[in-house]
Amino acid sequence: MKLIQIFLILFMSKSGFGQDKYVGIYKDRFSESIELKIDSTFLHKTRFDLSSSWTMGKWKVKNDTIFLKTQLVMDTLVLGKSGPKQLKDSLVLSPDKFANRIEFSDYAISTISSGGQNRTKPPLKLYWKKNKLYRINRNGTLDLRKVKAIRNDKKYRTYFLKEIE
């Protein structure tokens, strides 16, 4: 009897966590990628010429619709004193994936960089179908349009295709 109970618990835990089929790295035909991780976190990246952006967060699934919720990584900007007056510390977007305490000179250097966190916002909702992630428009319809590529005159759909599991 205990063997049957153990088997049922293992089977239900595996089938109840139905996110395995979604996990992997998805890339579009342009410069974006989304990595959906097994721990329900994601990493969204864009790269084009000398600019780049990255965003991290959590994802969840409901009926093959994937919801992305951004979680910004913040640094504490230590401002110090201005004459006799003590300035309050401030929170700023981190240039890396770790929260740190930084000085103003470090912050100034990171703001003139061509890359950084959340410069290109990830989609809020995606629809999964046959190893593809389709963007969902604000009105709730799938984005099935074709967009002209910069490097050639071909038009491509805007979905993300699963590359790596």
Keywords:
Lipocalin; single chain; eight-stranded antiparallel β-barrel; 45% strand; 2 domains; 165 residues; 2 helices; mainly beta
Verbal overview:
With 165 residues, this protein is mainly beta. The protein has two domains: 22-71 and 119-165, Lipocalin, CATH 2.40.128.640; 73-117, no CATH class. Helix content is 14%, strand content 45%. The chain is built from two helices and 16 strands. The chain has helices at residues 2-16, 104-111; strands spanning 24-27, 32-36, 41-48, 51-62, 65-70, 74-78, 81-82, 85-86, 90-93, 101-103, 115-117, 125-129, 132-135, 146-148, 155-157, 160-164. Mean pLDDT is 84; it is low at 10-16.
Summarize the SSE layout with pairings:
Blueprint: H1 2-16, E1 24-27, E2 32-36, E3 41-48, E4 51-62, E5 65-70, E6 74-78, E7 81-82, E8 85-86, E9 90-93, E10 101-103, H2 104-111, E11 115-117, E12 125-129, E13 132-135, E14 146-148, E15 155-157, E16 160-164
Parallel strand pairs: 4-11, 6-10
Antiparallel strand pairs: 1-2, 1-16, 2-3, 3-4, 4-5, 5-12, 6-9, 7-8, 12-13, 13-16, 14-15
Give a concise summary:
This protein has about 160 residues and is mainly beta.
Considering DSSP H and I runs of 4 or more, what fraction of the residues is helical? Answer: 10-25%
Average of per-residue pLDDT values: 84
Order of helices and strands, N to C?
HEEEEEEEEEEHEEEEEE
Please report the first level of CATH classification, the CATH class of the largest domain: Mainly Beta
Q: In angstroms, what separates the terminal alpha carbons?
A: 36 Å
Give the strand content: 35-45%
Domains counted in the coordinates: how many?
2
**Side-by-side strand order of the widest sheet:** 1-2-3-4-5-12-13-16
- Under CATH, the topology of the largest domain can be stated as Lipocalin
- Examine the secondary-structure arrangement and name the CATH architecture of the largest domain: Beta Barrel
Based on secondary structure, the structural category is: mainly beta
User: What's the total count of β strands?
Assistant: 16
* Largest beta-sheet characterization: 8 strands, antiparallel, barrel
Spans of 5+ residues with little confidence (pLDDT < 50)?
10-16
Rough outline: elongated
How many helices? 2
Radius of gyration: 21 Å
